[in-house]
Automatic annotation (TrEMBL):
The keyword Magnesium appears for this protein: no
Record protein name field: Zinc finger DksA/TraR C4-type domain-containing protein
Signal peptide interval: none
Gene3D superfamilies the record matches: DksA, coiled-coil domain
Compositional bias of kind Basic and acidic residues: 118-129, 138-155, 203-221
Stretches annotated zinc finger (dksA C4-type): 92-116
UniProt keyword Mitochondrion present: no
Natural source organism: Oceanobacillus indicireducens
Boundaries of every Zinc finger DksA/TraR C4-type domain copy: 87-115
Length: 221
């Protein structure tokens, strides 16, 4: 059971943390700005690189996630204040045993003891779109299948030869030239080779005259 002094200390800690979160949430998302251009300082997005706009989108998404965490912590603090008013603060909501003061110092909003706080289930469900999509550009490698047909990787290699936003730091292997800044640029995609004349021999072992002439012409070139 917490003493009055310990309960007062927990109240002060929660009250101070509450003010910190409220100050953090104020204008954290820049909601006082009407347009996104005012947030980034840009008058127009027409001349901006897509990578710059992607950075701004990432920062905006990160702020939203931090804001969600702060709101959840504020909700837990309000529950702790309510538990103090009811006299149930510091008591496990599952087993009814006292929560150690050391745990409350580490997590002032804790409403369960260590034994029951660890009994959490985590969802391992994956997005439904992964049933038809793969994050691996070469899914054949994941299935250990040697497929030499023209696939989406070959298509991407042809397109990326004309340039992309990737640099040396975006690739896992070393590249000798900026003209090779695409995956597997050293891969040899040779076309079909010409048929040698001796392959055209008949069942009797004699060469077809037309194929033999073609073979001689190839050797003389």
């Amino acid at each position: 059971m917490l003493t009055d002094k310990q309960l007062s200390q927990m109240f002060d800690i929660l009250h101070e943390r509450e003010h910190e979160l409220i100050d953090q949430l104020k204008d954290q998302l820049g909601l006082k700005y009407e347009f996104s251009q005012e947030i980034s300082g840009e008058l127009s997005n027409y001349d901006n690189h897509p990578g710059d706009q992607g950075t701004e989108l990432f920062e905006r998404s990160k702020d939203l996630a931090l804001n969600e965490h702060a709101e959840k912590e504020l909700e837990d603090i309000n529950k702790a204040f309510h538990a103090m008013e009811e006299g149930t603060y510091g008591i496990c909501a599952v087993c009814g045993q006292d929560i150690p003061y050391e745990r409350l110092e580490a997590v002032p909003t804790a409403d369960k003891c260590m034994e029951h706080a660890s009994e959490q289930t985590f969802s391992r469900e994956r997005p439904v779109e992964e049933e038809v999509m793969s994050s691996n550009i070469r899914s054949e490698e994941a299935r250990d299948v040697d497929n030499t047909a023209y696939d989406r990787e070959d298509a991407w290699q042809e397109v990326s030869r004309y340039g992309s936003s990737d640099g040396p730091s975006d690739l896992y292997d070393d590249q000798d030239s900026y003209n090779e800044m695409y995956p597997n640029s050293d891969e040899n995609n040779a076309g079909p080779e010409g048929i040698e004349g001796y392959i055209s021999a008949g069942e009797d072992g004699k060469y077809d005259e037309q194929a033999l002439d073609h073979f001689r012409n190839q050797k003389s070139e």
